[in-house]
Amino acid sequence: MRLIDAARCPYCARVRIALAEKGVEYETVEIDLGNRPAWVYELNGPGRVPILEGDFVLPESEVIMEYLEEWHPRPALLPTDAVERARARLLVKRFDDNLGSDYYALRRGDANELDKKLDALEVGQSLFADIAYVPWVLRARDLLRVDLPDRVSDWLVALEERPSVAAEADVVRRL
Ligand SMILES: N[C@@H](CCC(=O)N[C@@H](CS)C(=O)NCC(=O)O)C(=O)O
Predict the structure, then answer these.
(1) What is the position in ligand 1's atom list of the atom closest to the CA of 59?
(2) What is the average pLDDT across 28-48?
């Protein structure tokens, strides 16, 4: 199995963390986001990473996380109850719709409401959602020097106890 990957991409990072949690072995194919090879567009029309490739091709980080959860149900990232599972997916959807754009606005130096969004971030509800959020929060703290709310900072420090997240913190340190 291959992950078409980019170290700095937070969407790729959530897949790297999920793969590590599931103990799946894979090969990394690192691409240059500023000069994406043509074959990336052949695999995924919009040219975006991550892409997980086996005898199948799967783009979209949340879709890949769900695939991994179904393929390797243990250890579980989603709760067992169907409503709780749906809520965890909803948290990720809301996060992707709401927080990402403020993170990128701050990175560009544009007006943003990242502080407000971080204040409202619903952390610690499910490991699935936590893994989906954590790449942005790590990058906000360690690359953009954002002062996290105490509640979010404590959550992040606790999450970094997991080897999967500690490995991603190392990736961020090397960016
Ligand atoms: N919805 C996608 C977003 C992936 C994404 O935007 N990846 C970025 C790199 S961090 C990318 O490839 N951007 C290129 C582009 O949007 O043209 C996912 O969840 O995988």
Answers:
(1) 20
(2) 97
